[in-house]
């Protein structure tokens, strides 16, 4: 492992594989009321208002707010406007459900992975990142 | 994870492919939650009645096609339509037409699965009152926080999809707030310095909820120093704001809520992670943070988020009973459940409200679907939840106010605030 590449091991909430530039949120996000149909953050209270999640590896410490976020995430994944993968510092049932249902209905395998707080602190925005999660292990790598 | 023989049989298709699909979602979430087993549940409140796109409809219709049925008493949350007042929700634009059509398909699917068409975010105001300690699977953030905190029932922070799957399987993951250890109060909000005057205000409770959400996030806040026997409506307003501003799914009010007879009981005899002192200045600053509008322009006033109770409709009727009608330039809405509206009609309350110019909305809510006139720019509300979501949902600016300020402003046709309220 060098300074410019790294690999972390996380806990799998939902299996799948995704690659994209990493977007690390500075505050928790509710998909419902917080993200539009194109994947752009529309919550005016959010520090990253206006930024798009589409095709990014989305890193957020935790979810927030309405339970309808699961529907919004499943719909984003159905239309291809969702994140490529989701990395969190706390397990989140609502986010997991969105990914689970998108897989059940549409066969999307979008990984949802939880890292320890220390490892979560090591992921960096903007870096091209791959999340590879099987049923029992998850690897997060960037170069 | 351990499954009972019956649960395993359901998963393997013994109760049909619909029940098997529902069990796959329940067990998938249980694994993600680290649950060791599932728990039998007594009731379900389904949140997923709002149309958020094709995925929700596809999921409900797939369950129907595969022959699934609810196996426990199941209520339905607000949808995208006011089914009793078809003209209330606008269906002019293509998007509005899609939402209405999608909302109808969801409603049809859930009723076909066997759910009760209650269409309210406050099922606890009707006849659905889970007992203390009862395991349930409720979705909709305000219903969850109310069931856990005020009723002492046990539901985790469920969302769309899991709710209906729990209704079909009668099971939920035995994790999260179903477990004793996760119901411990973690963050203390010390309100003893607020003074009786401030704590008598209805405005104080959405603001306390907003602060709790900001401070506690998804941890369990404990309020110390609130007057004993705070009303259910005030706890409802507090919980709804806390659930939207943070991710609060359980709070304790020492001396009032079921699991908090004492501070030690609320904290499970351990020290809190963190204590914050709440001052009147912090409440005033929370009001400023939740109010995005400047100046005195006012187009609409919306109350009843979560759905207004009979007591809240009565309080509004009392404010409006004697005195001028609402200004012609302001539209005033009160959202409530159809069961509560029926009772308000029986008590003559609905008539007083309608005579004063209040538009009564049922089955849905003003911030989740197209009800406000498109020219609306500034809306006053007494709900922390409405204030939190409406700017993004509707593109309007908001002013958070007390019920009296809402009525005074609606009559004046402009924002009228009592700045001395929180001193």
UniProtKB/TrEMBL annotation, chain A:
Which UniProt keywords are given for this protein, alphabetically ordered?
Answer: Lyase
Matching InterPro entries, A to Z? PMDh-S-like_dom (IPR002840)
Gene3D superfamilies xref list: Phosphohistidine domain (3.50.30.10)
Provide the GO MF annotations for this entry: lyase activity
Highest taxon listed in the record's lineage? Bacteria
Pfam families assigned to the protein according to its UniProt record, in alphabetical order:
AcnX_swivel_put
Q: Where is the Phosphomevalonate dehydratase small subunit-like domain?
A: 29-102
Return the SUPFAM superfamilies for the record: LeuD/IlvD-like
Full protein name:
DUF126 domain-containing protein
Q: Which organism is it from?
A: Solicola gregarius
Q: What is the lineage of its organism?
A: Bacteria, Bacillati, Actinomycetota, Actinomycetes, Propionibacteriales
TrEMBL record, chain B:
- Phosphomevalonate dehydratase large subunit-like domain spans which residues? 1-407
- Alphabetized SUPFAM superfamilies for the sequence: Aconitase iron-sulfur domain
Arranged from A to Z, the UniProt key words for this protein are: Iron, Lyase
Keyword Lyase among UniProt keywords:
yes
Which Pfam families has this protein been placed in?
Answer: AcnX
GO MF terms listed in the record are: lyase activity
Q: Which domain of life is it from?
A: Bacteria
Please name the PANTHER family in this protein's record. DUF521 DOMAIN PROTEIN (AFU_ORTHOLOGUE AFUA_6G00490) (PTHR36577)
The protein, known as: Aconitase X catalytic domain-containing protein
- Species this protein is from: Solicola gregarius
Taxonomic placement? Bacteria, Bacillati, Actinomycetota, Actinomycetes, Propionibacteriales
């Amino acid at each position: 492992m060098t300074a410019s590449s790294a690999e972390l091991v996380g806990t799998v909430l939902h299996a799948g594989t995704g690659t994209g530039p990493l977007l690390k949120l500075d505050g928790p996000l509710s998909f419902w009321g917080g993200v539009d149909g194109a994947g752009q953050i529309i919550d005016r209270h959010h520090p990253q208002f206006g930024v798009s999640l589409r095709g990014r590896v989305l890193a957020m410490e935790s979810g927030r707010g309405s339970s309808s976020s699961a529907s919004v995430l499943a719909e984003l994944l159905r239309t291809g406007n969702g994140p490529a993968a989701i990395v969190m510092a706390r397990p989140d049932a609502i986010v997991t459900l969105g990914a689970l249902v998108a897989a059940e209905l549409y066969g999307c395998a979008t990984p949802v992975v939880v890292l320890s707080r220390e490892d979560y602190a090591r992921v960096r925005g903007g870096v091209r990142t791959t999340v590879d999660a099987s049923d029992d292990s998850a690897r997060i790598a960037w170069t | 994870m351990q499954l009972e023989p019956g649960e395993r049989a359901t998963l393997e298709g013994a109760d049909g492919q619909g029940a098997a699909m529902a069990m796959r979602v329940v067990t998938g979430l249980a694994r993600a939650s680290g649950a060791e087993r599932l728990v039998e549940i007594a009731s379900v409140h389904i949140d997923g009645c709002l149309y958020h796109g094709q995925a929700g409809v596809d999921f409900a219709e797939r369950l129907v096609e595969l022959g699934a049925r609810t196996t426990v008493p199941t209520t339905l949350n607000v949808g995208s339509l006011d089914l009793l007042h078809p003209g209330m929700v606008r269906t002019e634009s293509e998007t509005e037409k899609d939402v209405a059509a999608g909302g109808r398909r969801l409603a049809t699917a859930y009723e076909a699965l066997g759910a009760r068409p209650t269409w309210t975010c406050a099922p606890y105001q009707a006849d659905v009152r889970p007992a203390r300690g009862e395991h349930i699977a409720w979705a909709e953030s305000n219903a969850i926080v109310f069931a856990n905190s005020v009723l002492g029932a046990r539901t985790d922070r469920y969302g769309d999809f899991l709710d209906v799957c729990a209704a079909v399987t009668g099971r939920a993951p035995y994790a999260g707030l179903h477990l004793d250890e996760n119901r411990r109060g973690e963050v203390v909000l010390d309100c003893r310095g607020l003074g009786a005057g401030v704590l008598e205000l209805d405005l104080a409770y959405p603001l306390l909820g907003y602060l709790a959400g900001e401070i506690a996030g998804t941890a369990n806040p404990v309020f110390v120093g609130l007057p004993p026997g705070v009303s259910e409506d005030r706890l409802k307003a507090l919980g709804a704001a806390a659930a939207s501003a943070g991710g609060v799914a359980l709070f304790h009010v020492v001396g009032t809520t079921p699991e908090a007879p004492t501070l030690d009981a609320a904290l499970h005899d351990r020290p809190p992670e963190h204590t914050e002192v709440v001052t009147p200045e912090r409440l005033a600053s929370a009001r400023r943070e939740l109010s995005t509008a400047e100046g005195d322009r006012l187009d609409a006033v919306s109350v009843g988020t979560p759905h207004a109770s009979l007591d809240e409709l009565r309080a509004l009727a009392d404010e409006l009973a004697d005195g001028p009608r609402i200004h012609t330039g302001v539209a005033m809405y009160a959202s409530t459940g159809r069961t509560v509206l029926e009772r308000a009609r029986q008590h003559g309350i609905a008539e007083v409200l309608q005579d004063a110019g209040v538009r009564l909305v049922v089955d849905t809510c003003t911030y989740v679907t197209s009800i406000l006139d498109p020219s609306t720019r500034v809306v006053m509300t007494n709900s922390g939840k409405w204030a939190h979501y409406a700017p993004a949902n509707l593109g309007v600016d908001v002013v958070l106010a007390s019920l009296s300020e809402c009525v005074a402003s609606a009559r004046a046709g402009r924002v009228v605030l009592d700045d001395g309220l929180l001193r």
